Amino acid sequence: MAKKGQSKALKRYNVPRVMRISPKEGKFAIKTQAGPHSKERSVPLGYLLRDVIKVAETMREVKFILARRKVRVNGVVRTSHKFPVGLFDVVSVEGLENDYKIVYDHKGRFTVEKIEPETKIIRPSKVVNKVTVKGGKIQLTTDDGRNILTDDNSIRVHDTIMLELPEQRVVKVIKMQSGAKAYIIGGSHIAQQATIKEIKPGTEKKPRMVILKRDAKEFETTIDNVMVIGEQ
User: Fold this and answer.
1) Across the beta sheet with 147-150, what order do the strands follow?
2) Average confidence (pLDDT) over 195-216
3) Is the pTM of this model over 0.70?
């Protein structure tokens, strides 16, 4: 019979760039399930808990913790070790003093920052699409797979909305404009923070470009590689 569906196995040499894993230490790695993030820009929750946060030494121990509903991602309990987590997601483990926010390192791999636990999680999400739906409402699609309904037509693609999770309530909008503080999410300057100096218009064949300034140096990248995280 012919093979049906995608392969359920992921070999180590074929893992996404965001995973910090050596192909010489074994043959297979955990494969993310379908979820809010693309497979190229996410890592499995089990990998994060075992290899990055290091709350357990084996995947069996990780599954034991997950099965007892001790892990939350953005305030929601997750029980699958294959659940995809991505940039700026907040992982909370019951019994640990700190929560953990997912960020990039200088090589474009995911690492974590320790943060103080909060009752309400405020997460930045970049708007990647905007449409008008039935009833005249505006639907915003974000980089982490959320669909947000709003009446605010001033929000544009590439703006950042600050969401209160898990309710998904918009508490603030940060505009993509000159003077805004930005976090680089792709390209050779990934993980750097800089100030937007200028946004160049694009064409049908050329994307919009952003000139950024970090200390005394300037560099340029496509607007898709830029996420605004602060105002002027």
Assistant:
1) 147-150, 138-142, 121-132, 160-165, 169-174
2) 91
3) yes
